[in-house]
Amino acid sequence: MILAVTPLLVAIGLLGGSVAVRRSPDPPAARATATWCVAVALGVIAVAMLAERLGAWPGGAGGVVLLAPGSGRWMPFVTCLAGLAATALAPVTSDSPWTSHSPRTFARTLLVLACGTAATASDGPGAALASWALSAVVVWRELVDEADPSGAGPARVFGLHHLLGVGACAVGLLLPGPLGPTAAAVLVTFGVGVRQCLVPLHLWHGCLVGSGSPKGSGSAAGPGSAVGPGSVAGPGSVAGPGSRAWYGSRAWYGSRAWYGSPVGNGAPAGSLPPGLLVAFTAGPSGLLLLPEVARLLHGQAWAGLVVAASGVTALLGAGLGLVARDVRTALAQVGLALSGVVSCGALAGSVFGTAGHGPAGDPGVAAVGAVLAWQVGVVATGGAVMIAAATEARRGPMALVGPGGCFARTPRLAVAFLLFGLTAVGYPATIGFVWEDLVLDGVGTWFVLLAAVLVLAVAGSGATVMKWYFAGYTGRRDHVGEHDLTVREFRAVTVLLVLLLLAQIHPAGLLPEL
């Protein structure tokens, strides 16, 4: 058994940071503390990676190493890099549940990040399973406290899915002998399918971004009320459309009565703060458990159905992203498509490669591409989600109906959203194009139709990113009052984009040796 010291120490540090963040006097102070904790964690992991590269660690005697070998080597760094976006770019001035982050939310974000980094502390599946269970409990608690106090809606759907998923996976891994190979494979596949949002086990995914129905629709604080359109501050008044008091003030999109309160209109029911959403997505538990699924699927007659479900998930996410009416849902569907791509690349070799449909060595190509897809997707998608959240905190809900952005006034926001989005979906001239080539090359060797499905998924996800870039950042010629990236946000975005761009120089350094 291998014990990785660095992920364990970083997780302990993030747990301590969570306690400090919870005691912060206000949200800005909590954000500063959380960002500092994640930055320190990134520095510790970077030093450990450099020491390992230089051979400073004494050979890992007794199974103790600095970092997990293979695909687990980069996972703690990638998780904390996504955590940097989740904390440094988190808005705290808006009253919307989608964009607002309280000290308690920042503390829970660090808890989820601690679970994610600790997932690679051991080479067995137990650490990944425990990481998944603990992080799911934290997210469920946030849904109950902030988005669904009754616990009967999105929180119940999310909790039930993950309770059954963790339980099925644990039983299948712990009792493979008494259950038999087929039953164990079914249970583990079901559990990991929940974590990876594979069709038809993906229903909990929508609970994190809201059901799309506004809270308190038609109430006194909705349209036509004193704070909505048609009121004293509505069209025709001194604070009419085009002025900062109309689009940018708390009397319109930013007010709690309009967007975020239980009696408001426009807030998604059951939405999770974007920082916590990004942190939960950055957990590598699902990717770490996929090899267990591949091992158990070996020789199963129905194994091809699991790979087909992964391809359908990728295609479904791309299709739903194209028809989404708000940017929050659109980016969530892009993440769903990427999850399908990762699962398909990781599992295809266990079905087609072992059946003799491709040349020897091909199964590893798609699997390596799947790991890189997860690494790039976690950081880039997380960056796009947080940029969208920062934009909504400034302007109000980004929807197809409503004011678009003015590129001339917010060029940094627009360019950051575009670069993050295109990198996540694997467009050319980005590091994401490397994983796309590897996955398509590996999968296409066995089954051309499956590769064509993934091509459509990538193309549809890219079209979704471009659609929301034009709709959200180039839709107006006049300025509606929002400001561009602040100094703090600009520094965080610069760090993330520079690392993604530098990764293109030597992408082989990111590829695991499976």
Helix content: 55-70%
**What's the gyration radius in Å?**
22 Å
Count of helical stretches: 19
Write the H/E string, N to C: EHHEHHHHHHHHHHHHHHHHH
Protein structure class? mainly alpha
Strand order within the widest beta sheet? 1-2
> Poorly predicted ranges (pLDDT <50, ≥5 residues)?
211-269, 355-361
Number of strands: 2
pLDDT averaged over residues = 79
- Mass-distribution shape: globular
Characterize the largest beta sheet: strand count, sense, and whether it forms a barrel.
2 strands, parallel
Beta content:
under 5%
The first-to-last residue Cα distance is 17 Å
Helix-strand blueprint:
Elements: E1 3-4, H1 5-22, H2 27-54, E2 64-65, H3 75-88, H4 103-118, H5 125-147, H6 154-174, H7 176-179, H8 181-195, H9 244-247, H10 256-260, H11 274-281, H12 285-297, H13 303-323, H14 327-353, H15 362-395, H16 411-425, H17 432-446, H18 448-473, H19 487-502
Parallel strand pairs: 1-2
